[in-house]
Specification:
mainly alpha, 207 residues, flat
Length: 207
């Protein structure tokens, strides 16, 4: 395949996955309410750093380790606990949250990058996607050498950046009209969703 075709098809495949609601989308919405448009791109920067690490690990052949049942159970348990903790913290913060945009937006951006990393790695299905669909397409792309793998990664991360930037922009634009009560309700909803995802991931170990 040509590099353009690799990048384009990787973009479409990644976009189809990004459109599915999950923990990272919930986190992006909650952070965009508090910190504005920059939340989406910075969260995806953290997400992209982690995905680059995954691509390199798969490139060097650790797929059997990532697909082992014990590894998947560990990821599900750890990820579930992280999401539950994040959900509880968000619910706690929502009680006293205020619409003070200038103060909120002045916080260091690195927190958002780290949030993108933690939000991604806490989702066990993200790892499963990479060691199945992602790995299969990466192998196919590598027929064009390192350039093919780079085109695959570029198309993939471009889809994430486009979608989550659009979500962040829409939330940031609308937050000024939601009022303080709506702001708190939205944070409560995001906290509940994180608790749901965390419980769901932990439950997947048992059943």
């Amino acid at each position: 395949m040509s590099l353009v075709l690799i990048a384009f098809s990787s973009f479409v495949i990644a976009l189809s996955g990004a459109l599915v609601p999950g923990p990272l989308l919930t986190i992006t919405v909650s952070e965009s309410i508090k910190k504005g448009f920059k939340a989406g791109p910075l969260i995806i920067l953290g997400h992209g750093i982690l995905e680059l690490a995954i691509v390199l690990l798969l490139f060097f052949g650790i797929t059997p380790l990532l697909t082992a049942e014990r590894t998947k159970a560990f990821i599900s348990l750890t990820g579930g606990v992280i999401l539950i903790v994040m959900g509880i913290m968000l619910l706690k913060d929502a009680r006293k949250a205020r619409l003070v945009f200038t103060a909120e937006e002045g916080r260091p951006g690195m927190n958002l990058v780290l949030t993108g990393i933690v939000g991604s790695i806490s989702n066990p299905y993200w790892v499963i996607w990479w060691v199945t669909i992602g790995f299969g397409y990466l192998v196919s792309s590598m027929r064009s050498g390192v350039a093919g793998a780079a085109a695959f990664y570029a198309g993939h991360i471009a889809a994430d950046l486009a979608w989550y930037s659009m979500v962040s922009g829409a939330v940031a634009k609308g937050r000024h009209a939601m009022g303080e009560a709506g702001y708190r309700y939205m944070l409560y909803a995001c906290g509940v969703f994180l608790l749901f995802f965390g419980g769901w991931f932990i439950k997947s170990i048992v059943y």
